[in-house]
Amino acid sequence: MSGIDAAAAQAAEAARAEPTAQTVPTGARLNPRPRAWRSLLRPGILIPALVLLIALAWAVAPGLFTSVGPAETVGPALQAPSGEHWFGTDATGRDLYARVVYGASQSITAALLAVLVGLVFGSIIGVTAGAVGGRVDEALMRLVDVLLAIPTLLLSLSIVILLGFGTANAAIAVGVTSVAVFARLSRSQVVSVRASEFVEAAYGSGGTFFSVLWRHILPNSLTAVIALAALQLGSAILQISTLGFLGYGAPPPTPEWGLLIAEGRNYIATSWWITALPGLVVVLVVLASNRLSRAISDGGTA
Amino acid sequence: MTRSALLRRVGQAILVLALAYTAAYVLLAALPGDAVMARFGNPDLGLSPEQLAEIRASYGVDRPFFVRYFDSVGAFFRGDLGYSVQSGAAVSTLLAEALPSTLVLAVVALILAVFLAVVIAFTASYGAGSWLRRFFRNLPPLFVSLPVFWIGIVLIQIFSFQLGLVPSIGASEVQALILPAITLAFPIAAPLAQVLLRSIDDVSAQPFVAVVRARGASTAWLLWRNVAPNALLPALTMAGLLFGELVGGAIVTEAVFGRVGIGALTAQAVANRDTPVLLAVVVIATVVYVTINLVVDLLYPVLDARLRQRSARATRGASA
Question: What is the dotted CATH code of the domain comprising A103-297?
Answer without folding.
Answer: 1.10.3720.10
